[in-house]
Amino acid sequence: MTETPRRKVLAVSSGGGHWVQLLRLVPAFGACDVVFVTVSEMYRSDVPGRAFHVVTDATRWNRWRLLRLMLQILGHCWRERPDVVVSTGAAPGLFALSFGRLLGAKTIWVDSIANVERLSMSGRLARAVAQLWLTQWPHLARAGGPEFAGRVF
């Protein structure tokens, strides 16, 4: 009898609240092999014993750093070949979902709980690449997405 391989999840976020939200999703990953990608080395201690990569912290206001981030994320997606890419935002996650989808991964976007009034800009852009597109606020859910399935606490 052959064992089925464990699914590989690429869990990607920028720092601060995005990282905190991503960590709160860890129990949902169950027995998957999880590879974390984020913008700060100091977060490594939050996921001891797990695969962990640091990428450039960039925003739309710095095009060169954004290009560098995009290339780094492409490299991690190519090397890791995840089955699933999940992100809580922002730019690193959007790039990871885009490249992951191109490589055949399932993609999940969970917009930040901090976005009470409307989806984040990255969250709105994620619509094009996220196969499961989620908001944490029921009043932001719409027919055609994003969907509301609860909050990450």
Write the layout of secondary structure elements.
Elements: E1 8-13, H1 17-24, E2 33-38, E3 51-54, H2 63-80, E4 84-89, H3 91-102, E5 106-110, H4 121-126, E6 132-135, E7 147-148
Parallel strand pairs: 1-2, 1-4, 2-3, 4-5, 5-6, 6-7
Question: What are the defining features of this structure?
Answer:
Rossmann fold; 153 residues; alpha/beta
Written overview of the protein:
The protein is 29% helix and 22% strand. A 7-stranded parallel β-sheet has the order 3-2-1-4-5-6-7. With 153 residues, it is α/β, with parallel strands linked by helices. The protein has one domain: Rossmann fold. The mean pLDDT is 94.
Stretches with pLDDT under 50, minimum 5 residues: none
Instruction: Quote the distance from N terminus to C terminus.
Output: 39 Å
What is the overall number of helices? 4
State the helicity in percent bands. 25-40%
Task: Please identify, by name, the CATH architecture.
Answer: 3-Layer(aba) Sandwich
How much beta, percentage-wise? 15-25%
Largest sheet: 7 strands, parallel
CATH class: Alpha Beta
SSE order in H/E notation?
Answer: EHEEHEHEHEE
Integer tally of domains: 1
Category by helix and strand content: alpha/beta
CATH fold name, please? Rossmann fold
Query: What is the H level of CATH, i.e. the homologous superfamily?
Result: Glycogen Phosphorylase B
What is the number of beta strands?
Answer: 7
Indicate the overall shape: globular
Report the C-alpha radius of gyration, rounded.
15 Å
Please summarize what this structure is:
By secondary structure, the protein is of the alpha/beta class. It has 4 helices and 7 strands. The longest helix has 18 residues, at 63-80.
